[in-house]
Amino acid sequence: MSRFRKKPKPRTVPTEKDWGDYQSDLDQNSAHELFSGHTNAEMQGHFRRNVVAITDELRWMPEIPFRYYMLGFRDFLVAGDFGDEYASSVASCFLHLVAEKLENHPRHIMPIMPELLPTIEHVARNQAAFEADEAIYGSFLEQGRRIQQLFEDRGGIAFSHQLNEFL
């Protein structure tokens, strides 16, 4: 039995309206140029080529495109099609972006947190599988606990579901 009350809403590629006034922000404009009109499947190659740069593009997106493409980032991580030499960067970028959004822009990420939590937990508990040296990347387990605490502090699952109903 699922611990979530209902299935997540199906996601579609963000529209131009979803991107809002991206032209007035250089970072959002850059993200729009790279991602706009593309499915998550089409973006997987971009994640594979330079996950650090793509994470930075995600960081500045408006909330609707962010939610859609963050789930694509999750799918990329879960698929594991990035080679051992990039595994640590992929995992670290993912955890840090989740934490950053929870801290600074919770409305962007709270509606999709129920969909991200299993992957966050997997990464946090499997640092060695990502060949992420704790001396370099810190403790994924501690980062996972911090994310869980930030999530709970912002209302947790109940608030995520409320936001989804509202949005």
Major sheet characteristics: none
**What is the share of helical residues?**
over 70%
SSE order, one letter for each helix or strand: HHHHHHHHHHH
Instruction: Report how far apart the termini are.
Output: 26 Å
Give the averaged pLDDT, no decimals.
90
Give the total of domains: 1
The geometry reads as globular
Query: In terms of structural class, how would the helical and strand content be classed?
Result: mainly alpha
DSSP summary: helix tally: 11
Keywords:
single chain; mainly alpha; about 170 residues; about 70% helix; 11 helices
Quick take:
70% of the residues lie in helices and 0% in strands.
Describe this structure in words.
The chain is mainly α and 167 residues long. It has one domain (16-166). 70% of the residues lie in helices and 0% in strands. The protein is built from eleven helices and no strands. The chain has helices spanning 16-19, 26-35, 40-49, 51-59, 63-79, 84-104, 106-109, 113-125, 134-137, 140-153, 156-166. Helix 8 runs antiparallel to helix 10 (140-153). The chain is globular and about 40 Å long.
